[in-house]
Design a protein that fits this description.
19 helices; mainly alpha; about 80% helix
Length: about 450
């Protein structure tokens, strides 16, 4: 008899073969990779990757077992929802200020602060006390805001301002980071699975193991990174409001931020839902997580392939939203109460499609943000993008307190379908605005060059 466990292990093997094939195809004829033969650029990349790839395992070692840990401690789903909401609400309340703080106080200092906060976050998971766990989730929300804004802001500033490398190379770095992001997450998923199953501490073990890379990350930042800043002239509140004004003044930034919020809302709601949908009691959650991460690597390779074939980052972003919409539409049927084994397998496959889309999304959105967000307020604006995402995610999770929705999660998947379809529509508008802006900039440069060369404008 074919079990869910066998399907997951076979899927992991097949996906591993697929990722190597797509990566080889992505590297074949990759003219952009010539750019990174620049020795100083490669050295700079390594200094960023070393830190970033130490920061990520802290999050990924915990990922597969957060929900499992809370059930291991005996909490009901309604209590677990509150703990998840605490993290997202923390990002709304405190995360909004981490961007301006990073711009004003220094991004290197905030990267070190991330490691300190995440260390305490891991330590709180050793307690079964609800309020200690609640405090840990609050810290986790702050740390997550720092992880996904401060490190990118530091890199873009160093790349463009300190070193003066071409902006086109930013996409190369983020494509590589997304690929290795997947490899690190796969290894983290396997390690978390092994430690949870063999050390005798159950789902607590991965949280202890996560301490090591986080602490080392902080030490490496202190030893190797230079400090850089964004806007330091305004006060904290004034800087926050200025970031909001920048978003509403520029249609491109507003549209891109809205698309990001809608897509990432689906992603974080999925983070909560995948465990109860797939866990049959014997499901190897660490291996499932590794399958998801291999799919992110496939998505990263597909991003490179599509880029080489002339697809713009904005069009790739739209394709990501279409894929997520398809995945959510499938789950609107298969995640029903009393789902059969076939339904669970189909849900698993739909989740894999979603993760491939996420793998394409990360390098695409990172490049587009680097093009439209002003450097002086980068971390600030990026944190404002996370506010509506966290509000939507909190609202969706709190709806699980309603018994009807808790028993039939298809309703939540239906809401995610609506969000992703809306994101697709707005992404089309962003593509038009981004294209028009680039065309006007190109026209201005052409005129300036004509004037410099002595040509008369007719």
């Amino acid at each position: 008899m074919v079990t869910m466990e066998m399907i997951i292990y076979v899927t992991l093997l097949v996906l591993t073969l697929v990722v190597f094939a797509t990566k080889r195809l992505a590297n074949k004829g990759n003219e952009k990779m010539i750019s990174i033969s620049n020795i100083s650029f490669k050295s700079f990349q390594r200094s960023f990757f070393l830190v970033y790839f130490l920061a990520l395992p802290g999050a990924w070692l915990q990922g597969p077992y957060v929900y499992k840990l809370f059930t291991f401690y005996g909490f009901k789903e309604s209590q677990i929802v509150i703990l998840y909401v605490a993290a997202f609400a923390s990002s709304i309340v405190f995360g909004t200020f981490t961007g301006p703080l990073a711009d004003k106080w220094g991004r290197r200092k905030m990267a070190i602060t991330f490691t300190v906060i995440y260390t305490f976050c891991c330590l709180t998971k050793l307690s079964s006390n609800f309020w200690w766990l609640f405090a840990g989730q609050v810290l986790c929300g702050i740390a997550t805001s720092l992880l996904f804004t401060t490190f990118e802001s530091w890199y873009v500033h160093e790349h463009s301002e300190r070193h003066g490398f071409p902006s086109e190379w930013i996409g190369i770095t983020f494509s590589i980071s997304t690929f290795w992001y997947g490899i690190i997450a796969i290894l983290a998923g396997m390690i978390s699975n092994v430690t949870a199953e063999t050390l005798g501490y159950g789902p607590v073990a991965p949280f202890v193991v996560a301490l090591l890379p986080v602490v080392v990350c902080g030490v490496v930042v202190m030893k190797t990174w230079e400090e850089n800043y964004g806007n330091r002239k305004s006060g904290l509140c004034g800087s926050c409001l200025e970031g909001l004004r920048i978003i509403f003044r520029d249609e491109q930034i507003l549209l891109l931020g809205t698309v990001q919020s809608l897509l990432e809302s689906c992603m974080y709601i999925f983070v909560f839902l995948w465990t109860p949908v797939l866990d049959t009691g014997t499901t190897p959650l660490g291996m499932v997580f590794s399958c998801f991460m291999v799919c992110i690597m496939v998505g990263s390779a597909l991003f490179s392939i599509l880029s080489h074939r002339g697809y713009t980052e904005a069009n790739i972003l739209k394709n990501c939203l279409i894929m997520i919409s398809a995945s959510m539409a499938i789950c609107c049927y298969t995640a029903r109460p009393g789902a059969t084994n076939i339904d669970t397998v189909i849900s698993f496959l739909a989740f894999l499609v979603l993760e491939v889309a996420i793998g394409m999304y990360f390098p695409a959105i990172s490049y587009l943000r680097s093009q439209v967000i002003p450097e002086s307020h980068r971390a600030n604006v990026m944190n404002w993008f996370r506010v509506p995402m966290n509000v939507i995610t909190c609202g969706a999770l709190l709806c699980l307190h309603v018994e009807t929705i808790s028993n039939d999660k298809r309703i939540v998947f239906g809401a995610c379908l609506v969000l992703s379809l809306l994101g697709t529509f707005l992404c089309n508008r962003f593509i038009l605005a981004f294209r028009d802006e680039n065309a006007s900039k190109k026209g201005g440069i052409d005129i300036e060059n004509d004037v410099k060369s002595g040509k008369k404008l007719q």
